[in-house]
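User: Hey, my collaborator sent me this sequence without any context and asked if I could get a structure. I don't really work with proteins. Can you help?
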Amino acid sequence: MITFIFLLCFFAGYAGFEVRTSGDKIGGTPPDGRLAKFWKHSFNFNGKTNRRDFWITQGLIFLLYLFSVLISITLFLDRNFGIDYNYTYYQWNGVRQYILVSIYGFSAVSLIPSISLQVRRLRDAAKNPW
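Assistant: No problem. I've predicted the 3D structure and written it out in structure-token form, which is a compact way to encode the shape of the chain:
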């Protein structure tokens, strides 16, 4: 139940942001397009990525890691405690497995795209990685 409420609030907040066509571009790439570009160029090891795009994408990936950890914690609370709202007596012994599964899963999915982004960034910095 907690997970459902958390996801509902997240998607409601995300849907509340309207996408403008002018004035919201940062360095020529729309903010919501950076992650799409990250996944789209997953196996593209050619070309360059400038410093700003690299660090903004790394920050967004970090936020996705935090979001996956929050989802893991809410799933742990839902599965083990249900709708018991007395948070003082929770035993947090099993939460580590939930967090590690989400971190390892997201790391496995984003490993190749992250390497390709780093290779393109090194090329932009005039340091050929090969």
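In plain terms: The CA atoms of residues 81 and 90 lie 8 Å apart. You can pass these tokens on to your collaborator as they are.
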